[in-house]
Design the sequence.
């Protein structure tokens, strides 16, 4: 479907449980002027632990494909959910222009305190008004780094949610 759709006028793209093939096609398209990109995987449900291990779609090669494709050049709202790639997710942000993002959701991506510290020092976030980092591994150390950020001065909405315990990812669901 992505191969035949004219995507030059597309402003918002939401892909759930996407395949790496779909991302390859999307990233190869020229002239895309996306403002909002949403990549969502299925959230954890009890009883689906065996299937969950195959659910992750983003990996190092896919992150590099997206980061170097140019598709992020016009994105001002980025939402990635349930893709537990860890702090490597920041590669996407690092390839964006300073002040470009106004809204960022990195939900259940396994961001750590080190990632939060690195995130806090990205000039790409200088116009950010909304930040959702729920369901990650951020502790008080990471929160302090975010609060001391010289770039998060425009922030109006912050969601740190909770640390989601998921037995597949090593958490304790009880």
Sequence:
């Amino acid at each position: 479907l992505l191969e035949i759709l004219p995507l030059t006028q597309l402003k918002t793209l939401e892909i759930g449980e996407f395949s790496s093939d779909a991302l390859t096609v999307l990233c190869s398209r020229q002239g895309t002027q996306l403002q909002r990109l949403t990549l969502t995987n299925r959230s954890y449900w009890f009883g689906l632990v065996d299937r969950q291990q195959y659910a992750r779609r983003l990996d190092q090669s896919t992150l590099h494909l997206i980061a170097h494709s140019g598709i992020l050049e016009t994105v001002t709202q980025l939402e990635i959910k349930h893709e537990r790639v860890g702090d490597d997710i920041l590669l996407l942000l690092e390839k964006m222009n300073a002040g470009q993002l106004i809204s960022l959701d990195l939900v259940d991506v396994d961001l750590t305190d080190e990632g939060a510290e690195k995130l806090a020092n990205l000039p790409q976030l200088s116009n950010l008004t909304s930040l959702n980092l729920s369901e990650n591994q951020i502790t008080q150390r990471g929160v302090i780094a975010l609060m001391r950020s010289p770039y998060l001065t425009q922030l109006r909405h912050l969601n740190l949610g909770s640390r989601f315990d998921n037995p597949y990812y090593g958490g304790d669901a009880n």
Summary: The helical segments are 20-28, 49-52, 60-69, 90-94, 113-120, 140-147. Residues 166-174 have pLDDT under 50 and may be disordered. Residues 53 and 168 are 7 Å apart (CA to CA). Strands lie at 12-16, 36-40, 77-81, 103-107, 130-132, 157-159.
